[in-house]
Amino acid sequence: MNKYNVILISFVLLFSISSCTEIIDIELNDAGNKRVVVDARITNQTKAHMVKLTYSTSYFANQKANAVNGANVSITDGTNTYPLSETNGDGIYYTNPDVKGEVDKTYTLNIELSDGTKYTASSYMASLIDADKIEYKYEEIKQNPFTIAYVYNIYLFVQEDPKLGNYYMWNYYIDDQIATDTLKLKIFFDDNNVNGSYIANWAVFSIEEEDIVNDKTKVTVEGLSISKAEYDFCVAFMLETEWKGGLFDGPPANIPSNISNGGLGFFSASAVTSKETFVYRERNTP
Hints:
By secondary structure, the protein is mainly beta. The protein has helices at residues 3-19, 228-239, and strands at 36-43, 50-55, 72-76, 81-86, 92-94, 106-112, 118-124, 133-144, 147-159, 167-174, 177-178, 187-190, 198-208, 216-226, 264-270, 272-280.
């Protein structure tokens, strides 16, 4: 092959590669297309229930999302209406502290921004069977073939509702401080595989040894009834975040929401039960 053929082939390859390059201008979120994000839940507990409103931010933003201030926010069951007020200008709105939801009722969240834009969402509060008890065991686990660690496994004992189609979420607290403060740490599941069964010795949470710092620590496990729509929201959220990165992942998709008018996030109505136990500190590692 003479040098002219080599030059010609190189030119063709270079042209082929460059001709496949296209500049794609992706429309990222900015001030022109920001959306309202809702994080809200009402329960059958008597307390000040919270609605958090923020604006979505740019994909590459490196700052806290801006709060939605000055909105008119209320929750209603069709008979009673509970207004919420913003106290610190941080986009977090609260009901009065004497508000308590009721099971078997549908609750609707109403939001009206200062510019008149309105959003609504509705959620049904399903009942929830109370757990019998929780227990803990201080147990050894293998982190790899050469290293072991110790954890406090929290075991749950509960009778699952015999009616098919229930959905649950579980949290735990250490000395009344929530430990499952992000979705990836929570447990959520449906009853397809356990419907009507008695669930005993379910290791629902494992607490790292270093997280038990006092000789006697209160651990509380909290269960919530959630809707299928919220369950689907949780699964979709995790598939786009923590559960993403595998070889067979599907293409990115929008996370479902029950907020109207293009809003993001979710409004939930949940029955809540809890059980507590005391964990006594042990140490088998330095």
